[in-house]
Amino acid sequence: MSDRRRRAEQRGRRGEWIAGVWLWLTGWRIVGRRVKTRIGEVDLVARRGRTVCFVEVKWRASRADLATAIDARRLQRVADAARLIAPRYARPGDDQRIDVILIAPGCRPRRITNAWQPGAM
């Protein structure tokens, strides 16, 4: 693995850790981390009450870079992966959604709640 890729991996892991702590502080329980599927990966799976949240975490070097951190293609991959792992984490009657947490140095994490709406993108 190249040094550049290794540094990106470390930043990504740190961003996921920060997002996990932030979710925990806001009442969520982390039930899965870096859940891999044949389609892609879900960074975090969190639960609060009857809601299961599949979370995509994006870390960028600056606040300005966060504006382009997530797009419909990336969200579609997360949605497809979440659909595959949902039976592991969701019980009948649970609400399910996909959130995005954007992180940059010196900024509070920004959460986009229910970021994926099928057919909306």
UniProtKB/TrEMBL annotation:
Q: Which Pfam family is an annotated match for this chain, by its short name?
A: UPF0102
Q: Provide a Gene Ontology MF annotation, just one.
A: nucleic acid binding
User: Could you name the domain of life of the organism this protein comes from?
Assistant: Bacteria
- The record lists the membrane-crossing segments as none
Under SUPFAM superfamilies, the record lists: Restriction endonuclease-like
Concerning InterPro entries, the annotation shows: Restrct_endonuc-II-like (IPR011335), tRNA_endonuc-like_dom_sf (IPR011856), UPF0102_YraN-like (IPR003509)
What is the similarity comment for this entry? Belongs to the UPF0102 family.
Q: What is this protein called?
A: UPF0102 protein A8V01_18315
